[in-house]
């Protein structure tokens, strides 16, 4: 039994070391992101010299890169297999490193796949805080019967690229949302704001969707504190990151979402889990 106790203590130490040293993973990831390793591997698996030959970085230290790649492969960020004939290690992408590709918008793919019926009866949609409009552009591309509006601050939409079937509108979501759509899309917005500010945004969304009896499609984190699922753990971690990124922002549990939505005038809602650390919350105005 004493042995068991010792084993448990050592495991405890390993857990603390793991938490303390998590920054090593971040540093290794930063290194391969800055070198564009995932984009390099997007076409097919490659050896380290092949990867290095495609990275336009002066004085690349191959030995150190090989150690970074070995470490990240041990964490399943990259796939590493030894070629039987040449004995060389071939590196490839995994489901994790696909997230490092610069042109991959994976969350929207999950939204479009798992919320398919949700877009069926919509003729107009406004992405509030939509940035340059990439998300609403994907929605209207997948559902060409929908007319899309991308609403963001005037200086943001001023630089936005043109997308087919998307109109950019500049304004302030705390003032008014000047379009009356069938649906408002709010992706990664409310977690930036306190309950008080989020209530203001929700009340403006409610005013905007009331005319056409529309709905709200929120894409944001839903905290599930006891879950060990990696995606749920990431949402919990994000809650602490929010203290730095946006001091009044936070991630919310389903109970907190329910209270906030009610305050904003949306008492009916459903949470739709998707394979992402974000979930879809479909909300309807209170009667
Ligand atoms: C975290 S980004 C989210 C962007 C996008 N929805 C996404 O998921 O990538 C927050 C967005 O809210 C916009 N925003 C901030 N304050 C705003 C305001 N008062 N009115 C409209 N948009 C605002 C920002 O310009 C930014 O594009």
UniProtKB/TrEMBL annotation:
User: Which superkingdom heads the taxonomic lineage of this protein's source?
Assistant: Eukaryota
Which is one GO molecular function term here?
A: O-methyltransferase activity
Which parts of the chain span the membrane according to its record?
Answer: none
Q: Does the keyword Nucleus apply?
A: no
GO process annotations (BP): methylation
Q: Which UniProt keywords apply?
A: Methyltransferase, S-adenosyl-L-methionine, Transferase
Question: What Pfam families does the record point to?
Answer: Methyltransf_2 (PF00891)
Q: Which PANTHER family match?
A: O-METHYLTRANSFERASE
Q: This chain belongs to which protein, by name? A: O-methyltransferase C-terminal domain-containing protein
Instruction: Name the source organism.
Output: Hibiscus syriacus (Rose of Sharon)
Taxonomic lineage of this organism? Eukaryota, Viridiplantae, Streptophyta, Embryophyta, Tracheophyta
């Amino acid at each position: 039994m004493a042995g068991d106790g010792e084993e448990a203590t050592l495991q405890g130490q390993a857990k603390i070391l793991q938490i303390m040293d998590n920054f090593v993973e971040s540093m290794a990831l930063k290194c391969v992101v800055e070198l564009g390793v995932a984009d390099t591997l997007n076409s097919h698996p490659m050896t380290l010299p092949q990867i290095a030959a495609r990275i336009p970085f002066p004085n690349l230290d191959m030995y150190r890169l090989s150690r970074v790649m070995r470490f990240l492969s041990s964490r399943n960020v990259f796939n590493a297999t030894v070629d039987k004939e040449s004995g060389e290690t071939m590196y490839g992408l995994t489901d994790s490193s696909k997230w490092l590709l610069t042109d991959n918008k994976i969350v929207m793919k999950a939204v479009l796949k798992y919320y398919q019926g949700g877009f069926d009866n919509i003729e107009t949609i406004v992405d509030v805080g939509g940035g340059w409009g990439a998300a609403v552009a994907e929605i209207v591309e997948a559902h060409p019967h929908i007319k899309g509006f991308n609403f963001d601050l005037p200086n943001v939409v001023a630089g936005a690229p043109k997308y087919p079937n998307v109109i950019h509108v500049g304004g302030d979501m705390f003032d008014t949302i000047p379009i009356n759509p069938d649906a408002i899309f709010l992706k990664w917005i409310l977690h930036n704001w306190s309950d008080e500010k989020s209530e203001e945004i929700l009340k403006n969304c409610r005013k905007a969707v009331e005319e056409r009896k529309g709905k709200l499609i929120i894409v944001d984190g839903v905290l599930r504190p006891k879950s060990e699922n990696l995606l749920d753990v990431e949402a919990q971690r994000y809650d602490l990151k929010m203290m730095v990124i946006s001091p009044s922002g936070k991630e919310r549990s389903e109970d907190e979402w329910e209270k906030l939505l009610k305050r904003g005038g949306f008492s009916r809602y459903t949470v739709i889990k998707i394979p992402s650390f974000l979930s879809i919350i479909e909300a309807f105005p209170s009667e």
